[in-house]
Design goal:
270 residues; single chain; 2 domains; 10 helices; 0% strand
């Protein structure tokens, strides 16, 4: 900017050094040069002022941008701190909930283990129930003397043959109970054991038919849910899962109070 001003003033200085030798025309030219110089200086000052104002405006805009960035950063910082506090609280709460959940899971697993053990004991007891009942009857009969001629004596004889591995002779004794004493309390159990003799002979179709007959003839007898359960277990072992499930459902529906219903629920779940 100083260089431009020197460039304007230089012609004037040259004229002034000419001094007294200037003519009237020279003076007029000098006045025109001065006027042009003044106009140029005015334009230059105006341009400098505009440049100064533009620079001030840009500085103001930059300052505003800096303030806005600082404000956004402050808000972001507050949000981050709030999220960190929330996360810390959540982590503590989640840790407490996880500890409680693990404790409950341990309790559930313990109860489940006890339940499964109880189911296994119940199942073993059920499957051995006919054996236990007949052995008890046989022991009582031996203590009292020779077995009487009747359904109890015939049933004990059949069971003794069955336990000794003579299914054909045992089946004959159980069949005699049915033919001579069809209305006795031993009849349903005798028919159930006939099914066992066929199962021992590996004739599963005949065993299934006999157990189905137990339910048909003696639906109110305790032997009925036992026969259904034996059929279902045999079908399940043979891979006929759908038919086995149908029988489990029937036991649960028609004999809900029997021990076999509890076992049927367990087998259905498995």
């Amino acid at each position: 900017m100083i260089a431009r001003r020197l460039a304007v003033v230089a012609p004037l200085a040259a004229v002034l050094t000419a001094g007294c030798f200037a003519t009237r025309g020279d003076v007029r030219l000098l006045q025109q040069d001065i006027a042009r110089m003044q106009a140029t200086l005015a334009q230059q000052r105006a341009a400098d002022e505009r440049a100064r104002l533009e620079e001030a405006r840009r500085d103001s805009l930059r300052a505003e941008e800096v303030r806005e960035i600082a404000r956004v950063m402050a808000i972001t910082d507050d949000s981050v701190r709030s999220l960190l506090r929330q996360f810390s609280r959540f982590r503590v709460s989640a840790s407490e909930d996880l500890g409680a959940l693990r404790s409950q899971l341990v309790q559930v697993q313990a109860l489940q283990g006890a339940s499964q053990q109880r189911m296994a004991e119940l199942q073993r007891g059920l499957e051995s129930r006919p054996v236990v009942s007949t052995l008890a009857a046989d022991s009582a009969a031996q203590a009292a003397g020779p077995p009487p001629e009747g359904p109890a004596g015939l049933y004990r004889a059949g069971y003794s043959l069955l336990t000794r591995g003579v299914p054909v002779s045992a089946r004959a004794a159980f069949s005699e109970v049915l033919s001579k004493f069809p209305d006795s309390e031993f009849a349903p159990q005798a028919l159930l054991q006939i099914g066992e003799t066929y199962a021992m002979d590996r004739d599963q179709a005949a065993a299934d038919s006999v157990w189905a007959l137990v339910v048909e003839r003696y639906p109110k007898s305790p032997s009925a849910p036992t026969a259904l359960y034996k059929r279902a277990r045999a079908l399940e072992t043979a891979g006929q899962t759908r038919r086995a499930l149908d029988l489990y459902e029937r036991i649960i529906r028609e004999y809900s109070g029997a021990p076999e219903a509890t076992l049927a629920r367990e087998r259905r779940g498995q």
